[in-house]
Design a protein that fits this description.
Layout lengths: L3 H16 L3 H13 L1 H24 L1 H7 L1 H24 L15 H13 L2 H10 L12 H34 L3 H23 L4
Length: 209
């Protein structure tokens, strides 16, 4: 079973992981600064859903297949990197005018959510991370319920990470509100967003099994 000591140790480790800037943080902030609060929130929900799916995969043992197969790892890695680079190129080439009253680009809500989901779902490093992180807090004698404990810990990790990212979205939104809907700045942020996506894609290409 999961003891109290392991649980508090898990929460402490998770907290530091939540507040440590990473690819998800960069992606969410880039979305918020370039497309506004709603886009940021939808991106958070998409990213969190992707993490939750990886948690389920870890609980079912599917992530083990990815971790043990160099070919599967490479395929997912290249698909994920290509997708991020594609988003970056699209952002750099975009000539759409910002929304007049908010200084953000209008985009389909479902598309924003789906893009956030896919950026995490197509990242094999997250699957490997959960295989390495979660088992540390599962007692060896709890094999019969390890899947349930995996889901429990993963759910808490996702919930805490989601709340933290929503706070970041709030801060980023206030920053943009203070700056004001300046067209030139909005376009510049959009271009920087494209470079962030491309950088994340190139960083993913460096991932090793």
């Amino acid at each position: 079973m999961l003891g109290a000591y392991e649980f508090w140790l898990f929460l402490s480790a998770s907290f530091f992981l939540w507040i440590t800037p990473g690819p998800d943080t960069m992606y969410i902030l880039a979305r918020t600064l370039s497309q506004g609060r709603l886009a940021g929130v939808l991106s958070v929900l998409g990213v969190s859903t992707g993490i939750l799916v990886h948690t389920v995969f870890a609980a079912l043992g599917l992530s083990t297949l990815l971790a043990s197969s160099a070919l599967a790892f490479m395929v997912v890695k290249f698909v994920g990197a290509a997708y991020l680079i594609y988003l970056g190129v699209q952002a750099l080439r975009s000539e759409r005018e910002p929304f007049p009253s908010a200084g953000v680009v209008v985009q389909s809500r479902s598309k924003i959510f789906r893009q956030g989901l896919l950026t995490n779902l197509l990242n094999p490093k997250i699957a490997i991370f959960f295989l390495a992180f979660l088992p540390q807090f599962v007692a060896p004698d709890s094999e019969s319920s390890s899947a349930g404990i995996f889901l429990f810990l993963g759910g808490i990790f996702v919930m805490g990470g989601t709340l933290w990212c929503l706070l970041l979205v709030g801060f980023a939104t206030r920053f943009m509100a203070a700056v004001g809907p300046r067209t030139r700045l909005s376009r510049s942020v959009g271009k920087v967003t494209g470079l962030v996506y491309i950088g994340l894609g190139l960083n993913l290409l460096r991932a090793k099994l």
